[in-house]
Specification:
Number of strands: 0
Order of helices and strands: HHHHH
Distance between the termini: 67 Å
Mean pLDDT: 85
Shape: elongated
Strand content: under 5%
Length: 92
Amino acid sequence: MIEDAVDAPPRSHERAAAIAKASAKYRVSERTIQQYIAQYEAHGMHGLARAKPGNAGKARAIVSLRFDKAFRTSTLVALIAASAPSSICSTS
């Protein structure tokens, strides 16, 4: 995807044209191509690999299905009450 752009001198018209061509061909923004090139030039092929998540290998919060259902229900009720006209919700 970025071979032609990497081969062209930085800040050159050739690199700009290669970035535009790759952007159109792969349907990604030119900025994305520029970021790929920067990562490649800074770190080689390892710079293009997906990074491990910051919390990889760490314990995550476990939420029970019962709690999750109760939380979602209470949130949904609160959203409905907040969006309903005040005449419907009044107790007078």
